[in-house]
Write a structure and sequence with these properties.
This protein has five helices and no strands. By secondary structure, it is an all-alpha fold.
Length: 233
């Protein structure tokens, strides 16, 4: 967006952007991708070991509303501080994103009551995330357009901050499951299913063996009536 020539009416009524060139935007996005890769490799394992999955997710959920609420005000910074503030918020956003997805995946896996339903749970989670990615830009774009018409360029960001506040409050009700599914212990449901399958296979094998033996005896009644080592006469 171009720079605004209107005087802002704080705290909420102002419009305008940074008027960045295409070259600058491409450079910023490149730095975002490089930092995201480094954060996934080095920062995420360290933080997860220190805070745990639930602690990491809560910290990220609490930080997102602050970030989304503050971003629109960057256009009001002095010109010599704007790029520094953009990079700061970009690092903040990429760090939170890099920490949120692995922590969420671990919590989701640990919360599954059984390995038998883990695939269904992950499928529902992926479908829900895709649905939000599909409708999110459309809804936020409509809100942003309405905000610009009224003179509030940060309206879409503040609505996202409100949604994140709801998510942050919900994390206070979350409990991290102590027992992981990959600890080698089968759940009762899995054990019963395994035993049932083994019993069924054993019964079917015994019936098949008995049927083969009965068929052989019917075909030759003298089979099995001669001592070992002696041929039939």
């Amino acid at each position: 967006m171009p720079l605004s020539q209107e005087e802002p009416t704080l705290p909420f009524r102002f419009v305008g952007g940074f008027a960045l060139s295409t070259k600058t935007i491409g450079f910023v996005l490149s730095l975002q991708g490089i930092y995201s890769m480094l954060a996934q490799l080095f920062l995420v394992p360290f933080v997860l070991r220190r805070l745990g999955s639930l602690g990491t997710f809560r910290c990220v959920a609490i930080s997102y509303p602050i970030l989304y609420f503050a971003v629109p005000y960057l256009v009001l910074f002095p010109e010599n501080l704007r790029m520094a503030s953009i990079y700061f918020c970009l690092i903040w956003k990429v760090t939170a994103q890099a920490l949120a997805y692995p922590a969420n995946a671990i919590l989701l896996t640990n919360a599954a009551p059984s390995m038998l339903v883990l695939g269904a749970i992950n499928g529902i989670a992926a479908a829900t995330a895709s649905l939000c990615r599909a409708f999110g830009p459309t809804v936020s774009g409509l809100i942003h357009s309405a905000g610009l018409d009224k003179g509030y360029s940060g309206l879409a960001w503040w609505v996202c901050a409100l949604v994140c506040v709801i998510g942050a409050v919900e994390t206070s009700w979350m409990v991290e499951t102590a027992v992981r599914l990959d600890n080698g212990d089968e759940s009762d449901e899995e054990a019963e299913l395994s035993e049932s399958l083994m019993d069924q296979l054993a019964i079917e094998s015994a019936i098949a063996a008995a049927g083969v033996r009965s068929a052989d005896e019917d075909a030759n009644p003298n089979v099995g009536n001669h001592p070992p080592g002696r041929a039939k006469s």
